[in-house]
Amino acid sequence: MYTLYYLPGACSLATHAVLHELDQPVEIVDVQQLSNFTDINPVGTVPVLIDGDSTLREGAAILLHLLNKHKNHMLPTSGASREQAIEDILFANATMHPAYSRLFFIAQHITDIHARETAFTAAAEAINSLWQVVEQQLAGRDYLGGERVSAADFMLAVYSRWSAHFPVTITQGSNTSRMLDAVQAMPSFQRSLAAEQTRSAA
Ligand SMILES: N[C@@H](CCC(=O)N[C@@H](CS)C(=O)NCC(=O)O)C(=O)O
Questions:
Q1: Could you tell me the CATH superfamily of domain 2-72+188-201?
Q2: What's the CA-to-centroid distance between 172 and ligand 1, angstroms?
Q3: From the first residue on, what is the mean pLDDT of each consecutive set of 10 residues in the chain (202 residues)?
Q4: For residues 136 and 120, what is the distance between their CA atoms, to the nearest angstrom?
């Protein structure tokens, strides 16, 4: 049984959904209910995964740990498709996620209304450029890696939901919208979303 520390709807939702895709039992802990989460992750961010005696931090490292450990179709075991899947996870984690993180930063720290608007517009433009890159990669394929869903698809589907919280216009191409809709309709995604909402409402 894994333990996943999460925030509802945050990037930890991708880890949660991938755990269900891998058919792994998981207990989830909403870090908002904890007063000592920085004892578990001094950086204060989710996800954190407990696997036996190991405490794993950093979303990309956690996903690669899980995908290397459990048999799956999301991370090929060798070759160019494996390299591509790893690159896609890192693109999601280290490029797309930080682009979205700017929205949270602006909302939290920029109070001047004009500066805020300028910053939101610039952040949205940067995000939209990245979605165009995704759109090109998805040409002629259902998911980033081809026919089967990958961990990076889950990550992008989670991030895509965040723009609804901000006064920005984020647009995705038709290939991307199709992929994002397909991932969010998956039982693993729906189950994770529902569990996170139920837990935080309790
Ligand atoms: N590099 C970290 C970043 C994770 C991250 O930014 N998590 C956000 C949620 S999506 C978080 O925990 N934010 C709460 C905070 O920063 O206090 C990772 O990939 O695990």
A1: Glutaredoxin (3.40.30.10)
A2: 24
A3: 98 98 98 98 98 98 98 96 98 98 98 98 98 98 97 98 98 98 98 89 54
A4: 25
Q: Please give the distance, rounded to the nearest whole angstrom, from the Cα atom of residue 79 to the centre of ligand 1.
A: 31
Centroid of ligand 1 to alpha carbon of 46 (angstroms): 5
From 4, 7, 11, the mutation candidate for ligand 1 (largest count of ligand atoms within 8 A of CB) is 11
* Nearest protein Cα to ligand 1, atom 16: 45
Count CB atoms within 10 A of the CB of residue 181: 11
- In 3D space, the residue among 154, 195, 193 whose CA is nearest the CA of residue 9 turns out to be 193
For residue 139, the CA-to-ligand 1 centroid distance in Å is 30
Domain residue spans in the chain?
A: 2-72+188-201, 79-186
Which pLDDT belongs to residue 198? 86
Cα–Cα distance measured from residue 139 to residue 146, given in angstroms and rounded to the nearest whole number: 10
Provide the CATH topology of domain 79-186. Answer: Glutathione S-transferase Yfyf (Class Pi); Chain A, domain 2 (1.20.1050)
DSSP tag of 70 = S
